[in-house]
Description:
The chain is mostly beta strands. The protein has no helices and 5 strands.
Amino acid sequence: MLLEKLNPKTGKTDTKLPKFVQNRDFLVAHLTTGKPVTIEKFDDFAQLGRFTLRDEGKTIAVGKVLACHAPIKRKKEKV
């Protein structure tokens, strides 16, 4: 789930809950895996705090872990 799109120069939130991102965008996202994965917060253990997302043999994203087991933020649905 995409949570926030960040301004690359300031690091501050540009857009909350963006619908999509483009190449070279910086964002905060909540990721869930199908199988258990060994990770740590980047600040605690840098080697286990980095990740790469790949799809069909291509790298689609790289990043660092800000938190483990963080609560899920959900979009508010209009009724």
